């Protein structure tokens, strides 16, 4: 069944959703070694089904699998890439301990990591596209401890090569939206770092035929916008609500012209934004006259995993209602 994504102000999500009990249980059993990878993903399915049902009821146009399998966005992938070891607490310096995944050998792609959950979500989404979402190589490298490459740039680019294989698996199965999450970039908001991310994205996305998205959240990224505009992506997704839209004037200043994932839901607050409030927050962007409604995707600031399920769903419902109202106001039929 084909679903037509609205032309203006499509509603989407960044990725994670509150964990369902079946997912928590499956993660626990997987960690204990009681179940293998295949049974793990089988047991997560009811959790994904609940997430998809919530999205459909709320009215989200481009959904996700809710990242139900992922206890941690970096460890999840590290556990499935050859060359990584997930130690217990690793002593790095005298008094510094990391529970970071450790790179101990050359990194190699083994098998699909996140594709199975995506595929299941897609099979029950009633035609709505499901975003394929992976943690980006820059963030993977940043939150890992490297005992093998000894060079951060090399590690990032090697990770990009491995993760590209996963993107190819997604595209082969028909994914139309591919999102790479790079929340670590704002920790070092410098030109050289943005250029390293760009280099990695070129490896990830070269020749990939799907909508290419990068999600970056929090921190001081305003000065990075000119470099981000050079990234080989179609869409950039930013958090706005939590930082009171301080990024807006910079979009104008630097002539932002890519599609924008406009984060208008605060994922750190249990207060449910009203429809009026969301409409007004979108109007703040429209007033700047930077982008047409076709290039504005509405979503929460970041993943919803920290919120209670009912709150997350209520926020999405109001977001979808605000999008409907905005479409009408701007003369779009769908
Ligand atoms: Zn985020």
TrEMBL record:
KW 4Fe-4S (keyword) present:
no
* Assigned keywords, A-Z: Amino-acid biosynthesis, Metal-binding, Methionine biosynthesis, Methyltransferase, Transferase, Zinc
Q: Which InterPro entries match?
A: Met_Synth_C/arc (IPR002629), MetE_arc (IPR022921), UROD/MetE-like_sf (IPR038071)
Keyword Methyltransferase carried by entry:
yes
Which pathway features in its UniProt record?
A: Amino-acid biosynthesis; L-methionine biosynthesis via de novo pathway
A single Pfam family, by name?
Answer: Meth_synt_2
- Write down the required cofactor(s): Zn(2+)
Q: Name one GO molecular function term.
A: zinc ion binding
Chain segments annotated as transmembrane: none
Kindly indicate where the leader peptide sits in this chain: none
BP term (GO), one:
methionine biosynthetic process
CDD domains documented for this protein: CIMS_C_terminal_like
Which residue numbers delimit the Cobalamin-independent methionine synthase MetE C-terminal/archaeal domain? 9-324
What enzyme class is recorded for this protein? transferase
NCBIfam families of this UniProt entry? PRK04326.1
Task: Quote the function comment for this protein.
Answer: Catalyzes the transfer of a methyl group to L-homocysteine resulting in methionine formation. The physiological methyl donor is unknown.
Cross-referenced PANTHER family, in alphabetical order? 5-METHYLTETRAHYDROPTEROYLTRIGLUTAMATE--HOMOCYSTEINE METHYLTRANSFERASE
Name used for this protein in its record? Methionine synthase
Tell me what organism the protein belongs to.
Hyperthermus butylicus (strain DSM 5456 / JCM 9403 / PLM1-5)
